[in-house]
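Quick start: what a row looks like.
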Amino acid sequence: MAVPLPNFGALRDAFASAPSMSNQSSDSAQAPRSRYQARQELYGTWSAVDDAKDKANKLSNAAVKELQQASAKAQQATGKIEMYSPKFYAACTTGGLLACGLTHTAVTPLDLLKCRLQIDKNMYKGNFDGWGKIMRAEGFRGIYTGWGPTLWGYSAQGAFKYGGYEYFKKFYSDLAGPENAKQYKTLLYLTASASAEFFADIALCPFEAVKVRMQTTIPPFAKSTFGGISTVTAKEGTAGLFKGLYPLWGRQIPYTMMKFASFETIVEMIYDRLPGQKSEYGKGAQTAVSFVAGYLAGIACAIVSHPADVMVSKLNATRKDGEAFGAATARIYKDIGFGGLWNGLVVRIFMIGTLTGLQWLIYDSYKVALGLPTTGGPAPEEKKEKDGETVAKLG
């Protein structure tokens, strides 16, 4: 039996009461929905993207609000900090202390294995094998052997490194003058970072000496940081804590020069390629730029310093008694060749890149919380009125 099709009049009567999509929301608010009207909740596909955007915006706004509240509390406690004032350098020093101390302490298990393998390359087959053996012999605390001097030492180093960098960058910029500072900015970054690291390594060296000895003696020669310092000075005097200062300068100063100069350059490159000016971006976006630039700078540092790091490890592991430094270096290079100088590069890139990225993220987040601008990018300008004209002065 054929089913009769509805005529035009029936279709018109059936859908005449259905509101159009343009005024559906307003009509449904004024009158109850008829049984012929489509239920919007059953057809939510078209609103899924809008719902996701709305939720994302709410989360973003909430995060920004929390950051602003925390920043306001910090600024209320510290007061307004003028650029390049003693309070500014104190803030940068504290930010560097947090950035380096926390990150280096977090990777103590990796540093422990690296130091022990430099003494005996056959001690462990790999990271997990090493951590497993240490935990079975010494417990979970064993894989964090040396965390105390690491925290003390790299906190001190970070304080001098970041605070000193900000000071020397301004100091050398004033000596050079605005035009020369802008023209030779990369040289300025290199000089400032080298000067800061010179003093930072002096602060680090005593704790580094204790850390290495704790990590390379089984059981550790001391149970605490200052107990280790007392043990060393009792046997060797104060000079025993600074025996490794020259090699430390040789490794760290070139590394830090690359770290800061490449970071500043990458930050400028990022903002140059983004629409608008740095000042137009929010605090969250600027700290994200700091993390990305720091990670990329860490990759550059890892690549540049990796051959030297491999050679130092090989020298510590295979150098024969009485063998001259030059003869040992030539022998090792003959054994491993140029390609051998790049062994383990991928792992080191990941470790150093992450470490450096997190350091810049912590450092610039701390500065932002105190109402200070993030590092890198165009220099901040102070504007003042003079004789009816606006005079811009570089900060």
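That is the whole record. The longest helix spans residues 283-318. The first strand starts at residue 381 and ends at 386.
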